[in-house]
Amino acid sequence: MNHLLIITALQSEAEPIIKQYQLEKKHHSEKLFYFQRERITCLTTGVGEKNVRKRLGAFLQELACSNTILINIGIAGGKKDSSKIGTMYLINKIMSDKTGKVWLPDILLKTGIPEVQLTTVSKGVTDGGEKYKGLVDMEAAAIFETAVEFFPVHCLVFLKIVSDYMDEVLDSPEQVLPIMSNNLSKLDSIITLMQNSEIVRAPLLNEQHERLLTDLNNTLKLTETQTHQLKNKIEGYIAIKDDDFSFLSNYLHIEINSKQERSKIFYEICTKLSS
Quick check: pTM over 0.85? Predict the structure, then answer.
């Protein structure tokens, strides 16, 4: 059975989930806590990309991510003509309003939930959001960019529930709790589906990809952590660009004489795979 890591920005988004699955509070560190029971873990990051990178990044550094699926769920602003308040949507495209970067979650399971794109913004949108397509939130881009260092792309799932039409900022518990509670049955169905599915862990790399990864590992003398991160980078590159990455074979003829050289080349490869 797969382990599920549920990420929310607000504690009020997490509370109905904590209650539903009887999760118990645990401490990762003095300032970082989470909730867990059996195969479900819930972490609240706080609002905004800065909080996500700090809290989620620290948490994932020590989490065993194998057989784990990350689900980001929370409220989002929507458009009157294409979404409905209180409705849950599955995100198939994430764009950062600040950088213009785009990420494509690799949706392998049929959930029956309508799909839509989402833009991550730096502050709440209250002018109707005419410039945005789909939904808006303040965390998804940072969650994806942070988590893809630890998870295959097809193990990252983003669920958003429309709370407003980008005409006000709703963040009080009194406003958020009913929206989340009304969607618990849908979330429970998705959790059951993902906990028991093999397809979520289906590899994106074929034999040729795996062979190239092995050759790179041997040539560059990568650490175990670097090998894992490189594999995730390559999977992300395939999922996002569906492109050939044979350019990596150019690195098979490099001689590595120090840890500094290895780190420099590893960083260069990761940068190219992220561009």
Answer: no
